[in-house]
Specification:
Its EC number is 3.6.1.55. The chain has about 150 residues and is an alpha+beta fold. It is built from two helices and eight strands; from the N terminus they run E-E-E-E-H-E-E-E-E-H.
């Protein structure tokens, strides 16, 4: 039986120099509820993966996105990131082009996280290699300038 393809987005604040990514906390199934993931979902039969990604983000978060480059699984000649038995996930860098992300039925919380806080969340175990790849790409957040230096 072929693997079921799942798509997900590393939804970032800026495709050129991302500093933050959006994490979503699952509501179901019960064994995954309360764990964090990258938003996305399953590809329907005959559906283009990028079209599926756009559809899933519109359904789950009420946003339209600009799709950037694919986050390719390192080191292996695989198309996608292996998840659980029978599931493979392809992931793209994306930025919101229209709308504001809202929780829906699949998630009860959203969090914009930077490289220093992303590992504070309780991620789904299969997503941990992805989280490491995201951290490697996120630019550090610059500290605010000292008081009195703006507009001087």
């Amino acid at each position: 039986m072929p693997d079921q393809l799942v798509v997900a987005a590393v939804l970032v604040d800026d495709l050129v120099r991302p500093t933050r990514a959006l994490a979503a906390r699952r509501t179901r199934p019960p064994e995954l509820a309360g764990r964090w993931e990258l938003p996305g979902g399953k590809v329907e039969p005959g559906e283009d993966p990028v079209d599926a990604l756009r559809r899933e983000l519109a359904e789950e978060l009420a946003v339209e996105v600009e799709v950037g480059e694919e986050l390719v699984s390192p080191g292996e000649a695989l198309v996608g990131w292996p998840l659980t038995a029978g599931l493979v996930m392809r992931v793209w860098w994306c930025a919101i082009s229209s709308g504001e992300a809202h929780v829906g039925e699949a998630h009860d919380a959203l969090a914009w996280v930077d490289a220093s806080s992303i590992n504070d969340l309780a991620w789904l175990t299969p997503d941990l290699p992805l989280v490491d790849a995201v951290v490697a790409r996120l630019a550090p957040v610059a500290p605010p300038p000292p008081p009195g230096t703006l507009g001087s």
